[in-house]
Amino acid sequence: MDWDLTSYFPLFDGEEMRRFKTALAAEIGELREKAGGLEPLNHKNADAWETAILGFENLLTRIRHIGSYVDCLTAADANNEAFAAEEAGLSVLYAEMSKLGVELLRAFKTATDADFETLCARPALADARYYLERLRHQSRFTMSPDEEKLAADLGVDGLVAWGRLYDTVSGKLEFDMAYPDGRVERLPMSQRRSLMEHADRRIRKAAFDGGNKAWAGFEHVAAAALNAISGIRLTLNRHRRVDHFLDIALFQAGISRPTLDAMFEALFSDIETGRRILRYKAQTMGLPGVAWYDLGAELELPQNDSVSWDDGVRMVLQAFHAAYPGMAAYTREACDRRWIDYSRRPGKRPGAFCTGSPLSKESRVYMTFNDTMGDVQTLAHELGHAFHGHLMGNTRTLARGYPMTLAESASTFGEMLLIKGLLDDPATENTVRAFLLNLETSHAAVYLLDIPVRYEFEKTFHEERIQGEVPVSRLKELMGETQRRVLGDTLEPGGEDPYFWASKLHFYITGTTFYNFPYTFGFLLSRGLFARFLEEGPDFLPRYEAFLRLSGSDTAENVVRRSIDQDLTRPDFWVEAIRSLNPVQDRLEAVLPTVLKDFSV
Length: 601
Hints:
Blueprint: H1 15-36, H2 46-76, H3 81-109, H4 113-120, H5 129-139, H6 145-157, H7 159-172, E1 174-178, E2 184-188, H8 192-195, H9 201-216, H10 219-239, H11 245-253, H12 257-269, H13 271-284, H14 309-323, H15 325-336, E3 340-341, E4 353-357, E5 362-366, H16 373-391, H17 404-424, H18 430-465, H19 472-487, H20 500-503, H21 517-536, H22 541-550, H23 556-564, H24 571-579, H25 582-600
Helix pairs in contact: 1-2, 1-3, 2-3, 3-5, 3-6, 6-7, 7-10, 12-24, 13-18, 14-15, 14-16, 14-17, 16-17, 17-18, 17-21, 18-19, 18-21, 18-25, 21-24, 22-23
């Protein structure tokens, strides 16, 4: 591995790690017993419940610490059986924490408004009010304490186990990559994404075909996992009297239904913005439409040489330093202290993520750097997450849990800083400018069209799953139908990806339901933030940092209202963010013909 994980524990399964786990398990049990002996919150036992909540916060800090560590290990080496066993064992510990959480929910379920207000006003809990309000809301949709504890136990070998199965399969899965020169290479699935962004369409199609052939061999496993994960959630929702499956997604995202509806109303009313990007992409390739594997395609230009890791880091540092020196300094620290795992290796899981510990107050970035500009953008994206965590370093654990809707704003802000820095550099040639503008618009098309495909697919899938298991044939059919409906005439005949439901990790994440729409939410919100940054310059950065620091202390709507005075329930906000991409596309269409003309000569 490239990263240094010793600030978590000096040695995996060493004495310090074993003592940490033993103490954590014992203290979870002790606090569960004490909290279980308390009556629900009332005016007589507020002291005891305050002690229980603070104890829970301490345990939450520590379990997130070891959980982050194990996530790093299992992602970086999916073939390591000891790491996999540790992940499975940790799920038991999480289940015990869930049972402790059941006691907190019991405390609030029948509490009066007056008793709840008195508890929140206590100095030790004053800055944890939003977390406590969420607990109280959640308590209204719970089963009996015994049923909730049983659900936590069954989750270890049920919901979470299905997610682990998918992670294991995807981490070990390999595919045959047939290059245009006739060479065939066996590659880990983690390298497929970058190949599907290659400038050469033959390479993209080969990666697409080879990957889908591999997934076809595991289609029934993936379908079983997808059906089980959603089936368990729907069953629990029914017993918890949750009205609609989206209610859980909205709660986790920290937004209201009017906000979600406003965003998708704007997306579908302005869907031609995204389709315009794809039509132009197809035109530059001399095609009547794009295939699914063309969405992230790079331009086939002479400057499309591979980008080394060192050059990629240099690009990110220069771009950040020009606009946001504080973020550049953090990036330098992350590289110097080896907080990033980036190399290509067999056994790495696909995808990229940022994780962090509220105990050590450090973050780690995971990705597979395949020497492309897309990977440079991924690096900037994940560093945006890491910087967000860095800014919240002194925030208490109960106020650090910001939703994906706000987390993805920070990551996309990082991407936009990178693109701006490279485009503003006078030394950047038109060929590179065209490449970068295409990169920005291609990623925008993903947020405007690909993510809505995932959202619409998941909605329909859940509606059908209520009636029973959805077979492989229907999953493939539904995915193709949804892609054709959202992309419209920009999708070439036969250009669908019928296995996208199987190959996309996000559908199988068990800790968060409807994991996909927050990406578009964060992307568009970030464009709104960035527009104000361009207007105000460095004077905006304190407001941006206030936005990030508030992210775990209020709803997304209130965080935005308090920091930049915008209303997310209005479609106009989202329409403005979507239409901000038109000048970017205009710029691409102005510069690319001159570049292609020079290239052809």
